[in-house]
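ok trying this again, last paste got cut off
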Amino acid sequence: MIPQTDPNKVQNLTVLGSTGSIGKSTLDVVARHPDKYQIYALTANQQDELLFEQCRLCKPRFAVMLDEKACLRLAQRIKAAGLNIEVLSGVEGLERVSSAGEVDAVMAAIVGAAGLRPTLAAARAGKRILLANKETLVMAGRIFMDAVHQSSAILLPIDSEHNAIFQALPHHYSGEMALSGVSKILLTASGGPFRNTSLAELKQVTPDQACAHPNWSMGRKISVDSATMMNKGLEVIEAHWLFNAHADAIQVVIHPQSVIHSMVQYVDGSVLAQLGNPDMRTPIAYGLAYPKRIDAGVAALDLFKIARLDFSAPDFERFPCLALAYRALRAGGTAPSLMNAANEVAVEAFLEKRISFLDIPRLIGDVLNKLPYVTVNVLDDVLQADAQARVAAQDWISRL
């Protein structure tokens, strides 16, 4: 059972990745409840102008920029504005504001492998972690979960799908599906912008088309992942670690309306689902206030307006990235880390128009075929695999 927070204590919150879509939605929810939450630290990669505006509004004790040049610009702005905010830089700064004694909760919303170390630092420090960074579990699931259990950290999933599963599982869920009466996890997916696009048309897809998600407003990297369905593949691996579910017990279901955020199937034939408008403020508010509920600023779901809900099986030929994710999960060890790193390089190259949309799964598959998988014992195993995969991915691009 996850312990309750003191309802009379204002919670200090660090937001890792505050300039991204999850980070901005988190600040929106927090602003609605100034009597419950205060911002301890805000962090970003390079968007120093936006981070400065967030600092001006939220007045955190710390601001962290991963990029050193952006950090210098931010420090100058904060000094000129007369704000009493200490500016830190680099991964060490991220780890510091994630593990500080004054911090009650950490919103882990940095996109990509960059979020791994600060999120792991929060786990080791026993924090309440609102996990929106997929790569922490994809790359280092065993290490991260061990850290959570050893420090008695509180882990709450923020991805809308995993948050929905968390809500639909029995309160006594022990991590053993059979003992809890759970037979399967049904992970819903919108299908992205190319759900019905032919393979011939996918050859000509542009970055702007791939980033035009029909239901969600997200950053460009996550939007491309959604278009290839790698995003859902990463979520399959996340679900494995979060809920101790093997690959065959996690089924992806295409649901284009994005109203049912995921479901849990039980041995008695029951299926429990969590529904809501596609707005990340709902799972964010749930994670912030759990086990209570607070206003998230999200409109109530109008079932009459929705009128219908559609479901279909994923097309693994159209979305080979999803098949690659299942393959990496079953292989275990460093395979998910290799896959994730190759995907990050591939997506960046696609957004820069150096490779085509269909090259993304080809590149990932090549890296998985060429590099060996090893058992993950320590974080260095993960980081070495990540580095090797990035080199192999860049080599693949250079040969085109």
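PB: full thing came through this time. The chain has three domains: 11-158, 159-277+311-322, 332-400.
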